[in-house]
Amino acid sequence: MTLYHLRIIERLWGSRKFASFLMATLPSTLVIPPLVLTVLRPLTFSHLNVLPPGPTPLIFALLAQYHATIPTVYKYRVLVSSSPTEAFTFSDKSLVYLLAAQLAISSLPGSLIAAAVGWLVGVAWRRDIGPEIWTSWRVPTWIAGGKRDRGGDFEQLRRRLEGEGRGAGSAVEGVDGDVRRRGLGSGILDQFRGTF
Fold first, then answer.
1. What is the DSSP string of 64-100?
2. Which of 129, 124, 117 is nearest to 37 (CA)?
3. Which residues are CB-contacts of 12 (< 8 A; sequence separation ≥ 6)?
4. pTM metric for this prediction
5. CA nearest 6: which of 82, 60, 77?
6. How do residues 20-29 score in pLDDT, each as one tens digit?
7. Tens-digit pLDDT profile for residues 113-143
8. By the 8 A CB rule, do 9 and 62 touch?
9. CA–CA dist 115, 62 (Å, integer)
């Protein structure tokens, strides 16, 4: 459910930047939590020895981008008692944070470590703290689902169509002998000239 709500980041950034973010932060979110765990494990007498499986750090890195990028649209209050002063204020983003909090505390303390590392990696990426490759490298367009540059194909098709249309009156010859295309209005008028 959290990933469903975070899809707005991809729509906002575009597929290429979103994929670049995931690929740039993936090594950090995969390597740093086990390193933190190996440092904390002897200090806690082997109490911290389990990390939860799954992309928890990557989700929290995305959640940091969601927090910084997406504005709050509306806020609402939920009354706890009959007194209007005793109320909780929520926003439209509260559900996303509630689901993320549930993920962070699902397998304490390892899931909290993974969530904290993910959030810190996301904030570091946002503030350009870290390796320069995070912000300078981009996924190639063809990997992110973009289309390759087909300008040559369209140019060849345009020339062929102009060559076929010269006999039909779609182009006029200019003063210097160069061929220029007729406008849309002339093309429409040519359709009706022979009918009256």
1. HHHHHHSPP--EEEEESSSSTTSEEEEETTHHHHHHH
2. 117
3. 69, 70
4. 0.67
5. 60
6. 888 888 888 8
7. 999 999 999 999 888 887 777 777 788 777 7
8. yes
9. 11
